[in-house]
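Hello,

I think I submitted the S-adenosylmethionine job twice by accident. Can you confirm which output corresponds to this input? Input:
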Amino acid sequence: MKYFEKEKLEFIKNKISDINNITILELGVQKGNSTKMFLEVCNKNNGNLTSIDIKDCSSVTEDKRWEFIFSSDDNFEYIDKYIANKRFDVIFIDSYHEPNHVKKVFFHYFSFLKKNGLIFIDDVVWLPYVKNGVEDNDFIERINRLTFDKLLEIFNNNIENLTLDINFNGSGLAILKKTGEKLNKEKKIKNRLFTIKNLIKKFIYSPKPKN
Ligand SMILES: C[S@@+](CC[C@H](N)C(=O)[O-])C[C@H]1O[C@@H](n2cnc3c(N)ncnc32)[C@H](O)[C@@H]1O
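Support: Only one job matched these inputs. Its output is below.
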């Protein structure tokens, strides 16, 4: 596990470690690094963890406080049967890192989150992946940028329903708190940087190079 990934899990753990009888939903298990961290909190705070993965990760742990659902996390008809009567304090989104997928699962599982509950979304920052950056990677730069923009668009039309914080360390982490009951659709953010008026202003007022 990379250094910043350990830091990230520690960061999440600190944010949730005081929630008693905690209930957590995790999307994306893989080798179980986040799963084990969440179970540590569940064992300390008398909680329960439900995790979903498209691959069979059922052997990651035998902890009694864990329920594993072997499914794609957007197979809502199937998954909702398992979680119909549950409401979560914490949801961790770390499965298929594609902006529209993240949006889809975010909107769906939001209704299973308690008021003031937290959603953490992994990998929303692109800085390490830019050209000549420490992790230079064209694909990850693009999907993380697009996921970040998508979150801003969701937040832009939901300031009464959500708070949004971004941790910029490593590949980044979004932290959202549910403050309203229902989400509005995301709303495009208009950018005035490139209007003709502002481009002309920039051209007229930008300092001339000295000879
Ligand atoms: C980045 S890994 C998860 C890492 C884990 N959360 C951790 O911190 O140790 C992503 C996982 O998501 C799973 N995955 C990918 N697409 C998925 C989908 N549509 N539904 C559920 N799981 C998915 C993959 O099988 C993989 O195990």
